[in-house]
Design goal:
7 strands; single chain; about 5% strand; 2 domains; mainly alpha; 15 helices
Length: about 325
């Protein structure tokens, strides 16, 4: 059985395999280009219109991800723009570089129906997008209905996301504050030699030995929340532990361990001592309160996304943890 192009479009929007809000934003982007009869679209033009559509939708202040606490790349770019951390032109560039990874190649996907491949557009990655005649035909005949369906589908996805989201609006405001004060992610492997001295060459998360060829530097409180690379939040781990943790929150026992590790650094005479004072406070109480405050902020941003570590790990028998529990740290 063959279907009309309008049927394929509705199936893609309503039942396609890619359930992200990106697909809806792309649909609305195609609609706007069709209104001005533009079939050849540069990557910059595509990125700018996609950003405009997404930012307009974010005025509703509704979550765009089904995973609680997680934000789309587009949400993060928009927050950076709101915080004046990047210019509009930089935001457009970032959209073009990072936001189209799945939505363009997967837009046409329908389960076991191959006839939709490249039906409505073709694209040359990072270069251009070409809108097909089939798109103009269906938009010409039913543009109002198509726009209503796109808006309704977007609302449906947002409603499903909001069921799982706690403190989404508050989390966005907190995240925006971190972005305003933050920095770009950078290579932090240069901290390995320094951190090794305070971890006895063991993984922070499983307490097993770290081989030389498997040492990762990790942000205990995820960088996606705090947007900085300060030493108080950096630890060494195995690649497996680091990747298993990903950008989830850690259990509170790891935060307590981090606080103790920082106090051990304070017991040294290295220049990092003054750096910790400037970053998180000039007394054990202030430093502890600062770390706990940022941990609580992370909870509001990420929601209930915890990684408690490997099942085999027990902090009460972690030899490294025991070494940290000294009279200095309990003072």
């Amino acid at each position: 059985m063959s279907f009309a192009d309008e049927d394929y479009w509705k199936a893609i929007i309503l039942y396609g395999l890619n359930q992200s809000t990106y697909k809806i934003a792309l649909g609305k982007t195609l609609v706007n280009f069709s209104k001005v009869n533009k079939d050849k679209v540069t990557w910059e033009e595509l990125s700018k219109e996609f950003l405009t559509q997404y930012r307009d939708r974010l005025k509703n202040k509704m979550p765009q991800q089904l995973t609680p606490g997680r934000r789309t790349v587009m949400e993060t770019i928009s927050l950076k723009l709101d915080a004046n951390a990047i210019s509009f032109n930089d935001a457009v560039k970032e959209v073009g570089e990072n936001a189209f990874g799945d939505v363009l190649p997967r837009f046409h996907n329908l389960l076991n129906i191959p006839d939709t491949k490249d039906l409505f557009f073709e694209f040359n990655d990072k270069q251009s997008l070409t809108i097909k005649d089939s798109t103009f035909r269906i938009f010409e005949n039913s543009i109002d209905e198509i726009e209503d369906e796109l808006d309704s589908r977007w609302s449906l996805i947002e409603a499903a996301c909001s069921i799982k989201a706690d403190n989404y609006e508050l989390g966005n405001e907190i995240l925006k504050t971190y972005i305003e004060k933050g920095e770009e992610r950078k290579n932090i492997t240069g901290n390995i030699p320094f951190l090794q001295g305070y971890q006895s060459n063991t993984c922070f998360y499983c307490a097993e030995h770290l081989p030389r060829d498997d040492i990762h530097v990790d942000h205990v409180i995820p960088w996606s929340v705090i947007h900085h690379n300060e030493i108080w939040n950096l630890v060494l781990s195995h690649s497996f532990c680091n990747e298993s943790k990903s950008d989830n929150l850690v259990g509170s026992h790891f935060i307590n361990k981090l606080i103790l590790r920082n106090e051990n650094i304070m017991g040294s005479s290295f220049p990092w001592k003054s750096k910790l004072i400037s970053q998180i406070g000039d007394s054990p109480k202030k430093r502890k309160q600062c770390v706990l405050k940022q941990y609580e902020d992370a909870k509001k941003i990420l929601g209930n996304r915890f990684w408690g570590g490997l099942e085999s790990y027990n902090p009460t028998v972690d030899p490294f943890y025991k070494k940290l529990i000294t009279k200095m740290n309990n003072s």
